[in-house]
TrEMBL record:
Compositional bias (Acidic residues): 25-38
InterPro entries, A to Z: 5peptide_repeat, Pentapeptide-BTB/POZ_domain
Xref: Pfam families: Pentapeptide
Protein name, entry field: Pentapeptide repeat-containing protein
Region annotated Disordered, chain positions: 25-52
Organism the protein comes from: Fluviispira multicolorata
Taxonomic lineage of the native organism: Bacteria, Pseudomonadati, Bdellovibrionota, Oligoflexia, Silvanigrellales
Length: 178
């Protein structure tokens, strides 16, 4: 079944089956459709699980860690990945918004162009991590170690933690206190 517009710009259902059209069954061929019904059907299809990006679960992430360290361009939104060893993984251009990386080992990870918006990195080890162009706005960093991390052009949570505190952790390897 296909929906098209007739001459009056009203939606009509048109069967894809070939059939011979005669004048008396013209009314059967063009069936008017309620516009609200069409609108809600389209939105049901758009909102279906098939069209939404799939967020990886903790178990799926652990399974993937067994075979690869490449998590680039994946969607981890709201995943609980606390206390896992992701050292030297690639998260480039991944969506890590609201992810819980509390007490995780993220040493040497590549977070270039990744969104870590509102993520929990408390107690995480980010030594030598590449955070270039990453979005760290509203990210929780208390107790995190950022020693020698690259934060060039990254959006830092300076409204939550003073810039000097972040830079001290990068330069000296100390934990972020706030």
């Amino acid at each position: 079944m296909v929906i098209v517009l007739n001459r009056n710009d009203k939606p009509i259902k048109v069967s894809l089956m070939a059939r011979r059209m005669v004048e008396e069954d013209e009314d059967d061929f063009e069936e008017e459709v309620d516009e609200e019904e069409v609108h809600s059907e389209v939105h049901r299809e758009i909102d279906s699980d098939e069209t939404k990006p799939k967020t990886l679960t903790r178990k799926e992430a652990i399974d993937i860690l067994q075979t690869t360290r490449d998590f680039s361009r994946l969607d981890f939104r709201k995943a609980n990945l606390a206390k896992l060893d992701f050292s030297n993984c690639n998260f480039e251009t991944s969506n890590l918004s609201y992810v819980n990386f509390k007490d995780s080992n993220l040493e040497g990870c590549n977070f270039a162009n990744a969104s870590l918006w509102n993520a929990n990195l408390e107690g995480a080890n980010l030594t030598r991590a590449n955070l270039e162009d990453a979005d760290l706005d509203y990210t929780k960093l208390r107790g995190a170690i950022l020693y020698r991390a690259n934060v060039r052009r990254a959006t830092l949570p300076t409204d939550l933690i003073p810039r000097e505190e972040i830079l001290r952790s990068i330069n000296e390897g100390t934990k972020v206190n706030r």
